[in-house]
Amino acid sequence: MVKFDLFFKLLTEHNVKYVVVGGLAASAQGSSYLTEDIDICYARDKENLLRLAEALQLLHPALRGAPAGLPFRLDFSTLRAGLNFTLTTDYGDIDLLGEVAGLGMYDEVVKFSEELEVFGVTCRVLTLEGLIVAKRVAGRAKDLRVLPELEALLELRRSRKE
Amino acid sequence: MASNRSGLTEELEQLIRQSPVLQRAVEEGVDLTLLIERLSLSPTERLIRHQEALAVFEEFRRAGQRKRGEI
Lengths: 162, 71
Known about the structure:
Radius of gyration of chain A: 16 Å
Low-confidence stretches of chain A: none
Order of helices and strands of chain A: HEHEHEHEEEEHEEHH
Low-confidence stretches of chain B: none
Structural class of chain A: alpha+beta
CATH architecture of chain A: 2-Layer Sandwich
Distance between the termini of chain A: 40 Å
Number of strands of chain A: 9
Oligomer: heterodimer
Distance between the termini of chain B: 47 Å
Strand content of chain A: 15-25%
Largest interface: A-B, 31 and 27 residues
Mean pLDDT of chain B: 89
Mean pLDDT of chain A: 94
């Protein structure tokens, strides 16, 4: 069972720099689509990799889809050597993205994000505008499917402000 | 708020008439009433609903697996 609340509290406690992206960001912005995993785009500076590794090690991460028993240790070196990781953890499936297609690395992604208060902690979450750009660029069927809804949400939100 | 036979409020029908984006969304099968309801919630409330819905899906998935003798 996914535990969104515990996951975000953990990252906050470890001062990890990240932006919630993907389906969960869409959900936080009002989308009705359900996703089972948590996608985050993380900053790749040394301090952040150390903090992220320290936090995630508490969740017994394993590579999703890898053969059982395959040795895997998510530490600073592993994070530095890779970019994107698909993990299964005690709190559910988590995707770590070093880069988001159409937006870029963390420093660019953060410009398309906003702070939201979720489960008592402050998280940076991709905006509807950022989600729409990323989904358009990704261009897979599953991305294009949610576009009409995201665009409608943006329109409804704007109409409320007028 | 009063709704008509299509289940939409007059206010929402007017919005749809004025917006090609909303018209396209309706044509694509997006339930705008669901979105309006979700926009009325806080981000935390939205994620709690998401988490609860996933738990229900998981329960049904397991029920199917039990029925098929997979677990």
